[in-house]
Amino acid sequence: MLKLDLSANTSKRTIDCIAEEVPLQITINNTHSFIIWCSPSQFKELTVGHLLAEDLLYSVDDIENLTVNQTHHTCQVTLKPNINLKDRIKNQRIGTRIIPLIKTSTSAYQQDNKLVAVQTNLTIKAQTIIDAIDQMNEKAHGFKETGGLHDSGIFQADGTMVAFSEDVGRHNTVDKVIGEGALKRIDFSKCFLIITGRVPGDMIYKAAKAGLPIVASVAAVLNSGVTSAQKANITLIGFVRNKHMNIYTCTQRITL
Hints:
6-stranded mixed β-sheet
């Protein structure tokens, strides 16, 4: 790599760390396959989290077997015999990042009737969110090396981290931590989610599907995120930086 420094009017050859992206092929029952571009880590967690968000899994108990080939970037999922995969594919949600050209709003997840309100009595201290982000920053080795990764973490009400991920895609990080939490049988209703990217409605859908009542980001929220958070009864927080945060919905869950 050639590094230019215009302030000093210099240039030099050096080595740089670059974030890696690979195609993960997920196959269900040897019949239904698709590819997700992602960082080469936590393939199992990404697969479980994504299938839960897309209504192809209702719980991890639906899985008969799951095999990951790290070298060839594949994940083979076998569902239990009593599950009708064709019905699930037919009835899966339409609020994905790939939206067909139909005569309705392109923000399909905002009108998705499957967006169920999260029910919980959870409250957490604002300082706990700040401390959680500090924990994530300490674990974000990939971002420190490359500057090209997003992070997500799931934390219990006392600030204990129960899941963490890094990925080139911010949606992938959410799938990964939800998948990790589901595999650990974590009670999501007593946890909160921290992410580093912008928060659209599609990401709120993933949190609502898992039952996570609080979503906070160091970045901005989008209008679709606010709309979906209101419908899903999720506390949505943005711009968590330097002891400040903006709480857009369900403010009663955050205490000083």
